Amino acid sequence: MAPYRSSEWFGKTGKMGFLYRSWMKNQGTPDHMFDGRPVIGICNTWSELTPCNGHFRDLAESVKRGVLEAGGFPVEFPIMSLGETLLKPTAMLFRNLASMDTEESIRGNPIDGVVLLTGCDKTTPSTMMGAASVDLPTIVVPGGPMLNGKYKGTDIGSGTAVWKLTDDLKTNKISYNEYLAAEGCMSRSAGHCMTMGTASTMACMVESLGMCLPGSAATPAVDSRKKIMAHMSGRRIVEMVKEDLKISKVLTRAAFENAIKVNAAIGGSSNFVIHLTAIAGRIGVELNLDDFDKLGSKIPLLLNLMPSGKYLMEDFYYAGGLPVIIDQLRKELNMENITVTGKGHGENIAELNTCYNTEVIAPLNEPLIPEAGIAVLKGNLAVNGAVIKPSAASPELMVHTGRAVVFETIEDYHARVDDPELDIDETCVMVLQNVGPVGYPGMPEVGNMILPQKLLEKGITDMVRISDGRMSGTAYGTVVLHVSPEAAIGGALALVKNGDMITLDVPARKIHLEVSDEELALRRAQWVQPAYHTDRGYVSMYQRHVQQADKGADLDFLVGGSGSSVQRDSH
Ligand code: FES
Ligand code: MG
């Protein structure tokens, strides 16, 4: 093997070699670590402000032990960490920024292979996007879900419990003190959301793409085997560098197709669509919105996890985890496409395919829902598409025509939704405008609007809702999301008025505003584009360059990659 790229730093003689090595030695690094061995970057998204990744300093130590054992030189580095719960106005606004941070941190440093430590929703796609644009050997260590939430003798799930308990509080089914007690009961160990929310979806995406060791996705954060996975990933990345097994060899079109099919079978988050599309854009794999419907919508739901079902990630792990799902779908999947192990899924899961609980993972011939994947809707209301997750929706609302009740902004929604005078009933369609990538900005998870109090009190649990935003992967309901083009750039969503009729027809993949083209043209002529939120900083750049949801909401100039070579020295 030719010298690794780190030798362009540590292998130099003279002044530059002195510079590149000397400062590293202040950390107690002996001479022999600079002898040309693979240097492994451990990209750590640890932060106390990203509680889901709060255990990552420990996890990084396990990776380091594995790297050292295999003869590599581990170097841990931080990047911007995105926590889903605290970051305002939404972590999604910064996904592309963190991806730039990851990309430049890898490329600019003496790194031959990368380990990505990922957990909370955006930490996975952002680091994957950045790593893909550099294209070095890369392995992911998914940080693992929290243990099941336990509350008053029942299991409660991250996020899902918040929506449910908030409805209960609003209708006086529980007291405020009970509500408060549930907070600690829901989040009781290290790890990310343990529902099949976006973080679990992303971990399963990583595993189905072949980017982590088999079985990693479902292993709980606090299980000792999570540390073993991290340790073994550290060993493996050193070999991957020696084999020159770059991320682009793993992330082929076949890998993306596998991920789409697996995501359908697990009832994964609608956010999967945006993130997978953005990753594909970075690695140069052709993938469009229609592929998700074509490849995934006929795949049956096998995994019985909240929010679509009953159980949680810990149960999924004990039932056998993702290898069981991959095994059940083997006729649908490409089992040969190379993964980080250097082998295909077929070989990877040969001894991991026993299902230990068919309540949690249903057999293929008795699925929970026969066709579960994300459906892509089109029509005059969403010319470039919108998505709905049928496994989280109500069957009786899948074909529905109703009167639009329009909220122009999220503030407008909050101000009026619980007003007893609001002219709305359960047959109406709730429309929320200006929560797309440009409009909010950052496309927050507000699409699953909580229903008006007066309808909740009537016992109504679901209504058709439409927006250009996203919804939390832990949420549920008949919710049409990611409408493209979004309202803030003049999509038809901006032109909807109170009282317009809207037809949703999921089997026909249609979302239609029952307003004539002439009337729409008139309204369009009167439409005034909302001003950008700011003229400076990252947000200004984001609003001017972000692509629409159907393209993955990446910044236009970040699509593709720049490879790993850097021509000039630093001094
Ligand atoms: Fe971090 Fe859900 S909030 S994974
Ligand atoms: Mg989320």
Automatic annotation (TrEMBL):
<keyword id="KW-0411">Iron-sulfur</keyword>
<dbReference type="Pfam" id="PF00920">
    <property type="entry name" value="ILVD_EDD_N"/>
</dbReference>
<protein>
    <submittedName>
        <fullName>L-arabonate dehydrase</fullName>
        <ecNumber>4.2.1.25</ecNumber>
    </submittedName>
</protein>
<dbReference type="GO" id="GO:0050020">
    <property type="term" value="F:L-arabinonate dehydratase activity"/>
</dbReference>
<dbReference type="InterPro" id="IPR056740">
    <property type="entry name" value="ILV_EDD_C"/>
</dbReference>
<dbReference type="InterPro" id="IPR000581">
    <property type="entry name" value="ILV_EDD_N"/>
</dbReference>
<dbReference type="InterPro" id="IPR052352">
    <property type="entry name" value="Sugar_Degrad_Dehydratases"/>
</dbReference>
<keyword id="KW-0456">Lyase</keyword>
<keyword id="KW-0479">Metal-binding</keyword>
<feature type="domain" description="Dihydroxy-acid/6-phosphogluconate dehydratase N-terminal">
    <location>
        <begin position="37"/>
        <end position="348"/>
    </location>
</feature>
<dbReference type="Pfam" id="PF24877">
    <property type="entry name" value="ILV_EDD_C"/>
</dbReference>
<dbReference type="InterPro" id="IPR037237">
    <property type="entry name" value="IlvD/EDD_N"/>
</dbReference>
<keyword id="KW-0408">Iron</keyword>
<comment type="similarity">
    <text>Belongs to the IlvD/Edd family.</text>
</comment>
<feature type="domain" description="Dihydroxy-acid/6-phosphogluconate dehydratase C-terminal">
    <location>
        <begin position="359"/>
        <end position="553"/>
    </location>
</feature>
<dbReference type="InterPro" id="IPR042096">
    <property type="entry name" value="Dihydro-acid_dehy_C"/>
</dbReference>
